[in-house]
Amino acid sequence: MKIIVLIKQVPEMERVKFDTTRGVINRKSAGVEINPFDLNALEAALQIKEEFAAEVIALSMGPTRAEGVIKEAIARGADDGILLTDRKFSGADTRATAYLLASAIDKIGNVDLVIAGEMTVDGDTAQVGPQTAEYLGLAHIAYVTKLEEITEDYLTVVAPTWDGNYSKKINYPGLITVTKDLNTPRLPLLKRKLEVREAEVEKWGIADFETELDPQDVGLKGSCTRVRKIEVPSPVEREGKMWTGDQLREAITEVAQICQEKDRMGE
Amino acid sequence: MTEKEYNGIFVFAEQRGGEIHHVSYELLNKAEELAAELNCPIFAALLGPTGIKAEELIYRGANKVYYLEDQAFGQPDELFYKENLVDLIDELKPEIILVGATNFGRSLAPRVAAALDTGLTADCTELRVDQAGKLLQIRPAFSENILAQIETVTYPQMATVRYKEFVERKRDGTLEGEIIKKRPTKVQDQSVEILELLEQQEINIAEAEVVVAGGKGIKKAAGFELLQRLATELGGVIGASRDIIDVGYLSKEYQIGYSGYRIAPKIYIACGISGAPQHVAGIKEADKIIAINTDPSAPIFEVADYGIVGDLYQVIPRLIEEVEEDERRDN
Ligand SMILES: Cc1cc2nc3c(=O)[nH]c(=O)nc-3n(C[C@H](O)[C@H](O)[C@H](O)COP(=O)(O)OP(=O)(O)OC[C@H]3O[C@@H](n4cnc5c(N)ncnc54)[C@H](O)[C@@H]3O)c2cc1C
Q: In this complex, which of A138, A142, A226 lies closest to B150 when CB atoms are compared?
């Protein structure tokens, strides 16, 4: 059984500072990490591997410095990893990203299951998983919160859809996207960390694809959307009345009143 | 194909158990605005079991409703929906496609976009038409720190919009339109099987008029009983910051924010919530924001209409008393 885990290097969003005047993030203010949801995807793959003799391959697209996330995935238990990196891949929107990932998965061949995080914390679209599934011609289940039954032919999972939690079954080959609720990712092993430190990460550029990939389909050229402008949102004006310490009585009276007025408006 | 061959705005009308989801009416409202600029028709696509009141979509501004009837649409099967939607889109060739960014819509729309080889912009907070008639899609990025203006260079131009982002098109029973009933063009396959609905969602926080939310400042799960008392008193529901969901005090359907629900209540009361940008992203549409926090420098006070600096365990019981008192006086 062969499992591909899609991972992405992202800025540490909880720490990153933002330059609001220029509309860009201050890259020096925080480091980079594996997109948190992708760690849950990797953990799911490793749990499946524990049950069956599966091969787990981490796949990422990004600049050469993103090889760090491939190394980390291997340190955490992936068998192998591939970084898709080429100047021609840059400027990709979700469509071009998904197209490239799908092409790479086709090239790897004989894949039974693809697992992705539900979304990335810097892009926040949740689109790449389902788009990749479509380009691969595979079915998918999004927002998986639980793996119920793991077999060599199918998975049954729980995923919230519409107004409830559904139990769903996906036959291989297929793709799932997973949420944080699914599991607690294991930590990297020190021994493996040291092993991968000096190791060469396998990298594929456009030349490695030959016939499988049309340069018109990747990077900025293969993107169907363009960012035209960046705006910094103007803050919403709020009343901003504050009470402290000894004004508690006054605060309570006034807030209770506001609550009641509003409450009646709805009736 | 040139853009001229594409005409009309196509709204995916999501239904659940035969009930049309209100995000569809919000999309129709925006569609009406855009259609006025573009001078084009509005199509609604309703895929569902028989017996849905499709005319409701006409009363909310759709000119033509394409109602694909099949019991199998009673199951949230993205692949089956996608195949049939793509056939309908190929037939109609709309210039714009709008889908509600519900968990189903967010999973379905990317498949449709990829199948059509066109672009898709997620979670738009505003949609406009420029002078050339192109759709400008505005979406927040980097935890809402910036707004990106995005255009699609291919057709159709596709966007998803979160529930409660736009206001609903008011119902007008005098509006006329056409309902075109169809059978699905594709059959359901077995690559994904929907086995069963395990449990229904307990609450729908996005629709509540009053939300009393707790954050890490609450320190113990039992604290939510206190918040629940205030919420009940005000006819509302409780909610929480992400950290509360992470520690397991409440389930995910209570999470407010960027990776939880966006809410638009009349009153939002944040108790022991610091006001991180990812949390604030979910409460921007609230009419009145009230914050209770021990730390006067907590960022939540910057976005609140009313702030009480104090311990929630002292403030809330008194607030409950006061509200009860007021009610007794009124009756
Ligand atoms: C990609 C991403 C997505 C995220 N999505 C979300 C999301 O959807 N929703 C969300 O909420 N967060 C989200 N977060 C997390 C967010 O950044 C914050 O970490 C989180 O909102 C903090 O939760 P909190 O305010 O409850 O806790 P804290 O930041 O720890 O704040 C606790 C507050 O309680 C106050 N306090 C302590 N004791 C008391 C008391 N007795 N009475 C009154 N006040 C007290 C403290 O002064 C403090 O201000 C996301 C983060 C990332 C990176």
A: A226
